[in-house]
Amino acid sequence: MTVKLHLHLLSDSTGETLENIAKAALSQYDDVETVRHFWPMVRTEAHLDRILQEIAQNPGLVIYTLVNPATRRALEQRCQSLGLPMVAPLDPVNDALSALLGQQAKNKPGRQHVLDAAYFARVDAIQFTIAHDDGVLWEEWEDAEILLAGVSRSSKTPTSIYLANRGFKVANIPIVVESPPPATLFTLKKPLIVGLTTSPDRLIQVRRNRLLSLNQAPETPYVDQEAVIRELSYARRMFSDHGWPVIDVTRRSIEETAAAIIALFNEREGGIGRIER
């Protein structure tokens, strides 16, 4: 039986943190029809008053990250009067940090989004990754931190973009039997080269869906089982011959694949690599 849940997310900044928390928590539950009410940039009591009217009309769980004491107190009092559950997910983390560091949090809305050097480094990583997608600008691969190799539709591009958003400069190259990659690939020193592979059945399914979305014939050598197996075998031999770590993405989400790659990167850096810029 499907349960309907109104989920109210209130933030005094972009709300990105709240969205990620809610997404992670909801993934643990089945048969839940979630209606998300997203309220970013809540910084005045007048704005909060308008939001509280809709919360009253659509009662549910309220999750919030508000640092202004007056705005926060008004929300909490109203939720209590309505009998609504509310959660401030960053409170336990801030309390623990305050106790450990011996200082209070800055209580500045959106402080994590200050345009500091790390922000610009992340933007640079995204620009680099987009420019070096699908084997483009192979002459600059030595400037990459990570290079992903794999056959067509093995999640190279989405994984690259996800890693770029974590601050890593990533390039990727399709492995094609009929068109060997540039010799430069086998002489790179700086980038961590990771091979991505998947099962033939899964790859055929993904490719067939791709062809259908483009209104192309769903039966071509691109999805022929023997041809696909040959492609994957060719790629695996290349990975093995050059000692590149390999990740099977068959049952992994993009996030899981990226996490595994980051772990490999940090391990290569002697455990002092970064998880995120």
Average pLDDT metric: 89
Spell out the helices and strands N to C. EHEHEHEHHEHEEHHEH
Radius of gyration: 24 Å
Strand order of the largest sheet: 2-1-3-4
Strand percentage lies at 15-25%
Number of helices, where a helix is a run of at least 4 consecutive DSSP H or I residues: 9
Work out the number of β strands: 8
List the helices and strands and how they pair.
Layout: E1 3-11, H1 16-26, E2 32-39, H2 45-57, E3 61-65, H3 69-82, E4 86-87, H4 91-101, H5 117-131, E5 146-150, H6 156-165, E6 170-174, E7 192-197, H7 200-213, H8 225-241, E8 246-248, H9 254-268
Parallel strand pairs: 1-2, 1-3, 3-4, 5-6, 5-7, 7-8
Structural summary, described in words:
The protein has 277 residues and is α/β, with parallel strands linked by helices. Helix content is 43%, strand content 16%. The protein is built from nine helices and eight strands. The strands form two sheets. Strands 2-1-3-4 form a four-stranded parallel β-sheet, sandwiched between helices. A four-stranded parallel β-sheet has the order 6-5-7-8, sandwiched between helices. It is elongated.
